[in-house]
Amino acid sequence: MTGPTVSTPCLSPFAQVTADLLGMGCRVRFLAVGRSMLPTIREGDVVTCEPIHSGTIRRGDIILHRFRHGVIAHRVVKIEARRGQPAIFILRGDACAADDAPVDAAQILGRVVAVERNGRVISLAGPGARLARAFRVEVSRWKAWLKAAYRW
After folding, report:
1. What is the distance between the alpha carbons of residues 61 and 78, in angstroms, rounded to a whole number?
2. Fewest CB atoms within 10 Å of the CB: 24, 28, 79, 124?
3. What is the number of domains present in the chain?
């Protein structure tokens, strides 16, 4: 008699190939679909992901992870680390109001490091990219404040 079988979610062919390549240490490039990461990633942008170890993930990184039968790339907004247990990652699309369901390290495939738009490569990793994002967030806050202030 054999023991119980462990079933794994059936991934789409794209998700499976992406997971396999990143698991072998390769970078992957693909066309973005959807609007959840606007304005950082636009539909039709060419996204570049590289493999990542979950221990090196930082708040603000854009992570590609398994989601249902496919993959999704969203930004890390919080890392919940409990003593003696693996970290849990809270993600959210830049254009989304609510957080995604928590993601564990086993679901993570890679980190988005760049997007190519209109023939130009935009780096999304490293200190320069973090500074540029912080600047864009601050400008957005000021714009929202100014709009609200001048409505009355």
Report:
1. 10
2. 24
3. 1
